[in-house]
Amino acid sequence: MAKNTRSARTPKPSSRPIGRNRIGKRLERLARQIKDCDEFVDHVAGLRNRYLHEQALRESAAQTALRQSTRTFHRHAAALALWLRQAHDGSMTAIEREALDRIGAQLHGSAGAARAQSAPILAWLTRAGQAAEASIARTTPRQDGLAGADTARTVAEGLRATFEYHKLKV
User: Fold this and answer.
1) Residue pair 87/115 in contact by the 8 Å Cβ criterion
2) Burial zone of 113 (CB within 10 Å; 0-12 exposed, 13-18 middle, 19+ buried)
3) Which candidate, 143, 125, 134, 121, places its Cα nearest to that of 70?
4) How far is CA 3 from CA 11, 17, 104, 148, 159, in A?
5) Closest alpha carbon to 23 in 61, 51, 62
6) Who contacts 123 (Cβ-Cβ below 8 Å, separation ≥6)?
């Protein structure tokens, strides 16, 4: 007498369609309080997923690493620009000037060659530091609650469209 193993392998049919958006019990309960309709609950779940996706894009690990790298570049560019400025504009006995002269003597055989070549580098470092600072200001998430304004606007428009579609009053 062999046991019927086929029935043990077949999945039990669920009440949810396969392509339906996943939604938490709490959100489903709230959505059903507004309108007890599977289509409405699916729309709310889609909005939730869209919101989570937008938030993930805004605060992804790659964005965080990019901001960190840009801050590091800015810090080093500012420090090197300060050092070069002190080597150029400092007194003849400044340690930075002596160090740059030694580097120039080692690289080019002439102490003044490094100073002459470092002038455009100083200008580039200054511009690059300013660009990095502007980039940091543009990509840093705001702490005043407006960082997710675009995301919130997207969700609000989605809710408005969902309510209009299901003929609900806001």
Assistant:
1) yes
2) middle
3) 134
4) 17, 30, 87, 57, 52
5) 51
6) none
Q: From residue 128, give the alpha-carbon distance in Å to each of 13, 64, 147.
A: 61, 20, 26
Least confident of 43-52, 86-95, 111-120: 43-52
pLDDT tens-digit readout, 103-112: 989 988 888 8
Nearest 10 degrees: Cα torsion 124, 130, 131, 132? 110
Residue 85 is encoded by which pair of tokens? 């400025």
How far apart are the C-alpha atoms of 126 and 88, rounded to whole Å?
14
- DSSP string computed for the chain: -----HHHHSPPPPSS-TTPPP--HHHHHHHHHH---HHHHHHHHHHHHHHHHHHHHHT-HHHHHHHHHHHHHHHHHHHHHHHHHHHHHS-TT-HHHHHHHHHHHHHHS-HHHHHHHHHHHHHHHHHHHHHHHHHHHHHSPPSSS-TTHHHHHHHHHHHHHHHHHTT---
pTM above 0.85, yes or no: no
